[in-house]
Design a protein that fits this description.
It is built from 13 helices and twelve strands. By secondary structure, it is of the alpha/beta class. Helix 3 packs antiparallel against helix 10, helix 4 packs parallel to helix 10 and helix 5 packs across helix 9.
Amino acid sequence: MIDEFHRIKRLPPYVFAEVNAMKAAARAAGDDIIDFGMGNPDSPTPKHIVDKLCETVRDPKTHRYSQSRGIPGLRRALAAYYARRFGVDLDPEREVVVTLGSKEGLANLAMAITSPGDVVLVPNPSYPIHHFGFIIAGAAIRSLPALVSTPDERAEFMAALERGVHHSIPRPVALVLNFPSNPTAQVVDYDFLAQIVGFCRENDIHILSDIAYAEIYFDIDPPPSILEVPGAKDIAVEFSSLSKTYSMPGWRIGFAAGNARLIEALARIKSYLDYGAFTPIQVAATAALNGPQDCIDEIRSVYRERRDVLVEGLAAAGWKIPSPLATMFAWAPIPPAFRHLGSLEFSKLLLREAKVAVSPGLGFGEYGDDHVRIALVENLHRTRQALRSIKSFMRDAASHGGQAPGRSATG
């Protein structure tokens, strides 16, 4: 049994595994499952990026080991992106490292800076690696509120942050932030980030900020980087990715940028673990950052249209959910008639009866159990097909007291 291994003992059963197993079984039986579960972009990578990959891969010199820190041209391209997008100056030699996606970078930095028993502050619910990267490294997690949309919620976040510092033994070493947020789609402004930076500098706490969704936003100003705040580079590192911005999830290319000491720690760990991403991928990523950016607007428009169709269609079906201001996700409260089931059982019921897969909120933390996450990864035709199925499911369940016809509440 793998549970006898120390680090495995600290990892609970993967909540998404049950839904994934059901999904696989249904497809094996011939069911057409519309899958809003994984945040796996379906749009093609822009042509000029693919063309650069194909051009580069034909040179056999690029087939050799690459550089763990990332090729210099790509690090310079990331620094140039930060300069034009956020007005932030970065030293590509000392303050930037290329990662195999933001997930790998965050997990390896957690290993680099965390000692067993250290306390780390993480919003709950949040993307699993934000918790489990540190849990695998031996840390203890203290949860913070994930909702920060209103002044009262932001005040409660800061109060919880202060409690976390003053009532944790040992004192926390790091705070993880993710805005725009996966799964909750929460966004924050510069002033709130400045308040957090001021508090963490005063209390000597590192900040690990994940901005993988900084370019997927709707109806709001472009989300800020925490590195825009004066003094943030004294304590903060920010993780970004090309996965969502340029629809490049399978390419596994991302970055860490910010505090030179933390970047050097991450680079040292990575030097023992990998030789960097395949060089043609890094060259193509450089072309993405340096090339035409209208493709980002097009990708953003795709998600906006899908969001609007989904939110309006669910409302028409009797399931009202907030319209996300950013990310490629809707964070959907479970309809009241099904809330007693919890997110896992509701997700399984929706899959079985409506042939629609979503992610149970419990998989992002216990405080997400009254929600499910819906990823905007199906085209408009498939989304409308799912909405018809959900509407039929909701209507049939309402006529049977909140249960699917002929079934108990838990199936």
